[in-house]
Structures are given as structure tokens and as C-alpha cells.
Amino acid sequence: MNAMNTATFLSQLQQQAQAQKSLVQSEFLTLDQLELNFKLHATGWSILECLEHLNRYSRFYLPHVEQAISSAPASLTPQPVCYSWVGKKSLDVANPNGVKKHKTLKHMNPHNSQLTSEVLEEFLQHQNTLLQLLEAAAKVDVNKKAIPIEFFRLLKMRIGEALEFLVMHQQRHLQQALRVKNQILQPISLVV
């Protein structure tokens, strides 16, 4: 969370979001239903559950971000990106390099859901929307507090914080899905 101007900030988020879209296309679209639903252990998530969790967040946040961008004041020159206490805390929780596990809210937890590959298609649609919003955000003040936090809607994140949160949160769970995929590909050792 270094202070940078909005143009650089949004450009980096666009690159990361595009890479996430490409990763899902190259790593998960070719897997069959059994592989997509494979779990390392009973309490773990499958690849589809990781992506469904992200879809649930996108269903909540993307419409709020879109509304905030459409009503935010125009910004003709890049400004420094600012962070609020709430934004910093949200980004800390979503940080893909964080080792601390966080309990998922019940309605955001897809554990033991009946999921199909449609989850992947929905994720890619959300990713296209996110990329469009990142482009649109370049024309507005991303420091405007406007995005309610999903679990406590009275608290608000800034537009830039919410966009960064979405990208970081996705990275965290795409890494989790990749770990599951890597276990699928491990040869099974038989003890004789």
C-alpha cells in the first residue's frame, strides 16, 4: 500500500486482473467436473468452491463499485491514492501473502455446494466487468468513500480500496485453487 498516483495504481490493478482472468482460462477451463470438485480434505474447498466464493463477493461489490464510479466526481489529473483505516484492514485480510486464515462469513462460504463449470464462466464475466470498471475509474476520484463493506454496510471503503480489495482477494483464492489443482496432478503413492 505505497502512495502512488491513480493512473499507475489502476494500471497495475488492470494488469493483475487480466492475469487472473488468463490464469482461470489456462489452468481451470480444461479440467473436468471431478477435478474441479476435488478437495484436499473434508473441510477444504475445491477449485469451484474457491471461485464461487469470489463470485459471491463480485455479486455484492461490483454493482456498488459501478454505482460509485458513475456518481463520483470527475478527476482530470492523477491524484495520490489514499487509504482509510477500514480500507487498510480490508486489504490486510485479503492479502494473498498473509499467512493468517480468516473465517468466511456463512453466506459467502460455498463449502459443500453443488457446483458446475458454470462457476468458471460467471467468474470470467465478473472479471470482464471488473476490467471495465478499472478503466472507468481512471476518470473519477478513486478516493471517494462510497463502497459499503459487505459484512457491515455502515462502514465504507473508498473506490480505489474496493477495487484493490477485489483484485487482492481474488489473488488469495486463485492461489488456493492452484494449490488444489497441483494436488490433483500429484501421483498417488501406493503402500504395498
From TrEMBL:
UniProt name for this protein: DinB-like domain-containing protein
SUPFAM superfamilies: DinB/YfiT-like putative metalloenzymes
Residue span, DinB-like domain: 29-177
Listed InterPro entries: DinB-like (IPR024775), DinB/YfiT-like (IPR034660)
